Automatic annotation (TrEMBL):
<dbReference type="GO" id="GO:0003677">
    <property type="term" value="F:DNA binding"/>
</dbReference>
<dbReference type="Pfam" id="PF00126">
    <property type="entry name" value="HTH_1"/>
</dbReference>
<dbReference type="InterPro" id="IPR036390">
    <property type="entry name" value="WH_DNA-bd_sf"/>
</dbReference>
<dbReference type="GO" id="GO:0032993">
    <property type="term" value="C:protein-DNA complex"/>
</dbReference>
<protein>
    <submittedName>
        <fullName>DNA-binding transcriptional LysR family regulator</fullName>
    </submittedName>
</protein>
<feature type="domain" description="HTH lysR-type">
    <location>
        <begin position="3"/>
        <end position="60"/>
    </location>
</feature>
<keyword id="KW-0010">Activator</keyword>
<dbReference type="InterPro" id="IPR036388">
    <property type="entry name" value="WH-like_DNA-bd_sf"/>
</dbReference>
<keyword id="KW-0804">Transcription</keyword>
<comment type="similarity">
    <text>Belongs to the LysR transcriptional regulatory family.</text>
</comment>
<dbReference type="GO" id="GO:0003700">
    <property type="term" value="F:DNA-binding transcription factor activity"/>
</dbReference>
<dbReference type="InterPro" id="IPR000847">
    <property type="entry name" value="LysR_HTH_N"/>
</dbReference>
<keyword id="KW-0238">DNA-binding</keyword>
<keyword id="KW-0805">Transcription regulation</keyword>
<dbReference type="InterPro" id="IPR005119">
    <property type="entry name" value="LysR_subst-bd"/>
</dbReference>
<dbReference type="Pfam" id="PF03466">
    <property type="entry name" value="LysR_substrate"/>
</dbReference>
Length: 326
């Protein structure tokens, strides 16, 4: 039997909390990957560890029997790591978390960049929204984060990794569809949907305030909070909405809102800045990880197109997809 130590940590978190969401919060990840890892552990040990009922989680007899052995195993692993770090002078792994509301392709690319770091070993997680990543940075649970801007906490510093120009999606027979570009003034008499930011309440509020400050007051959310892109497209078609988007025609989202039914039009207006994704950290951490600054420089060099640089154009398309993925 080849047991993964991370799965043992996940098992103990659920055993302690008897609640998958609380356990996921404690582990700084989201519930779906936690549930998947528990199922993989159950497959490895040959039986179910938890009885799962609606709003009720309890340990099975097998789960109860394995709790203490799991604690002992992880205690020995921690002792092993502590002795090794003390003898070699190495710090522990750099803890890096990313917003779970970026598209999976973009998260995979960022995780790849983290795995490439030469300056330090790393541990990667998906705590949740940008606000949740920021909270973990401030609490010292994370050393670095990958977030959508704006970030809700003023203690967070950042360096922008990607920018994505703004645009609108409209029906192909809409008067704005024939424009080479639009300005914010062109939208003042229209019903404008802001679902692009619905995954992040702070970003949604910020976008709404920004539009209202520029004279756009008829602001709506087209789809339900968990509505798909297909539902969103149906609402734009039926209600003749103007949908705020990232202008990325080659993204999967851009292709959905393409002719013959829809048209993407870029926003060219000095008052409308591009959407941004950033590498973030807490300015006030009392004891920052010794390799944090070196990791920041190394990650930025990867995204800036160093010898192993990432494909920024492809990643920018992923930003556009991720902003409406959830």
């Amino acid at each position: 039997m080849n047991i993964d130590f991370t799965r043992l940590r996940y098992f103990l978190a659920v055993a302690d909390e008897l609640h998958f969401k609380r356990a996921a919060d404690r582990l700084h990840i989201t519930p779906p990957p936690l549930s998947k890892q528990i199922k993989l552990l159950e497959r490895e040990v040959g039986g179910e560890l938890f009885d799962r009922k609606y709003h009720d989680v309890s340990l099975t007899p097998l789960g109860v029997a394995l709790v203490e052995p799991a604690r002992r195993i992880l205690a020995v692993v921690r002792e092993f790591e502590t002795v090794a770090n003390e003898m070699t002078g190495r710090a522990g792994p750099l803890s890096v978390g990313a917003t779970a509301f970026a598209r999976s392709d973009l998260l995979d690319e960022f995780e790849e960049a983290i795995a490439r770091l030469n300056c330090t070993p790393t541990r990667f997680s998906l705590p949740g929204s940008t606000a949740e990543v920021a909270a973990h940075l401030v609490a010292g649970h994370l050393d670095l984060g990958f977030v959508h801007l704006p970030c809700p906490d003023p203690r967070i510093e950042f360096r922008v990794i990607l920018e994505s120009a703004g645009g609108i999606a409209v029906r192909s027979d809409d008067p704005l569809a024939g424009r080479a570009a639009v300005t914010i003034d062109d939208l003042r008499d229209r019903e404008v949907a802001v679902d692009i930011a619905r995954a992040n309440q702070f970003a949604l509020d910020s976008l709404t305030r920004r539009l209202r400050s520029l004279g756009i007051h008829n602001i709506v959310e087209a789809a339900h909070s968990r509505g798909s892109e297909i539902e969103l497209a149906a609402q734009v078609r039926r209600r003749r909405l103007v949908l705020m988007v990232a202008y990325a025609p080659d993204s999967s989202f851009g292709k959905l809102f393409s002719p013959p039914e829809f048209t993407l039009v870029p926003i060219e207006d000095p008052t409308w800045k591009p959407a941004q994704l950033a590498l973030a950290w807490c300015r006030d951490q009392p004891q920052p990880h010794v390799a944090r600054d070196a990791a920041i420089d190394e990650i930025m060099s990867l995204y800036d197109g160093g010898p192993h640089g990432l494909d920024r154009e492809a990643a920018a398309r992923d930003v556009a997809d991720g902003e409406t993925a959830r």
